[in-house]
Amino acid sequence: MSPLPSTPLLQRPGAVPADPPDAGVAAHYGDPYAEQRRLAAGEALVDLSHRPVLRIAGPDRLSWLHSLLTQHLTALPPGLWTQALVLSPQGHVEHHLHLADDGEAVLAHVEPGTADALVEFLRRMQFMLRVEVSDVSAEWAVVADPGLRLVPRAELAAHDGPVAGVAAFEALRVAARTPRLGLDTDHRTLPHEVGWLTSAVHLDKGCYRGQETVARVHNLGRPPRRLVLLHLDGSDSELPATGADVVQEGRTVGRVGTAVRHHELGPVALALVKRTVVDGADLLAGPVAARVDDEPAFELPVSPAREAAAAREGLLRRR
């Protein structure tokens, strides 16, 4: 893919560039906790324009994607956002997409660094169907306020309202136990383990790659691992690294995903652990003492109706 255009919001006063995989946007603008609070209240915009945006056009686009992805897409209403996965033949998650159809084409945004492999897969599966896959990241930008939506990239320069860095978005995401591909997943992750069965998989459709595994694990009701929220020892100045071992009584029981400092919860992390690890268990996350949360998840502060309305407005606006 072509390099993404630089974002004008990195020129805002106090902007601190984010590290990979979020390089290219601001981690924060000088006050991470205040930015979290503003974002949670819906009073700030997060620049996520480092996320690649793909366009899938052609009259066969929805039926074709329906046959490849985990989501039911043949009757997807224009402007309504949904999530979908590409699975391996063994049912492991390979790609995670946020997508919507604008009546003329599907627009999808994906994790940084994954677009090339996804485009290669889609084009390999194109055959003689009337579809065309293109990279439109130079035209569209992903933002969150806090729900995800697309806006014309030119509008970023015109935005003069409050902003929050990607660190604020990540903190709210972790508190809501919402996974992120490549950070909170590995090459063995099944949709059931991280909650994507309810948001990105349609259980009443079949005939996509990996579907047999999805159905079998769902019917057995016993995925081997589960995503949990860890409360980390606040006396440790360092957060555990993504991919660090989670250890219980000297035995490795999982891996650390995203670790953040939340404005209310303090230092917390997502972790993918064996299903036998119970709520409230004491663990080590890398070198940091941790405890599995036993409280209901914080929800991302946006209702599905509000997100759908914001998505429709952002997606369907034209320059």
UniProtKB/TrEMBL annotation:
Record's keyword annotation contains Cell inner membrane: no
Keywords: Transit peptide
Matches recorded under Pfam families: Beta-barrel_CAF17_C
GO annotation (BP), single: iron-sulfur cluster assembly
Region annotated Disordered, chain positions: 1-26
Record's keyword annotation contains Transit peptide: yes
Compositionally biased spans, kind Low complexity: 13-26
Every CAF17 C-terminal domain range: 225-293
NCBIfam families: ygfZ_signature
The protein, known as: tRNA-modifying protein YgfZ
